[in-house]
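Figure S7 source data.
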Amino acid sequence: MSEATGPGERQEMPRLDGMPPVPQPRRPEDFDLLYEQRPPWEIGRPQPALLALAEAGAIHGRVLDVGCGTGEHALLAASLGLEATGIDVAPAAIERARQKAAQRGLDVRFVVGSVLDLSGLGQLFDTVVDSGLFHVLDDDDRSAFVDGLRAVVPPGGRYFLLCFSDRQPGVLGPRRITQDEIRTAFADGWRVDSIEPVMIDSTHQRGAAHAWLASITRT
Ligand code: SAH
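Tokens for the predicted S-adenosyl-L-homocysteine complex:
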């Protein structure tokens, strides 16, 4: 379910325990503020599900990390010798990503920008990795994002999506995504190869959340 929100408003998740709603970050400045401290998704290493894909050789060619945060997955691609780009709307995240690249001696193009304007990157990509971006987008942005993605991924290119799943109980954190929502969003111009149940690691005290890892090919 998506709540109608005007510009500058935050989406809120109702709480089942009667407490006030939990504000969900929506605006660039909300995300930027979260990076002043350590956000729960900032684990300082790649997500295990995406690392496993890289180790299996599934990440290749020119790689784009959408909503890259502090860049762990773009940095992972660069460490494999691949040409990597990361884009995020939060300047604080990109600054940290650039610092990490310098510290690790890796060459990555990190861009402050919106995933709703991927054409602005002026490049095509063979592999796109998404760790926790899709599930923060509302319905309208989700469809604009997929349209833009279609334009920068040529046929045969792949998109790997790691998102919170509807198997995750409770309401804390981002929107839960169903397998049907993934198949619907990628019905046009894509083939959904697989959707597997995996976990997303976090620094939250419970440590990990139920997630989907979707492997999707541009047709
Ligand atoms: N991929 C990172 C961060 C996940 S959190 C990781 O795994 O650690 C989601 C990220 O998406 C945040 O960094 C947020 O700033 C970014 N984001 C949210 N909306 C965005 C948009 N429209 N364009 C680009 N980045 C966005």
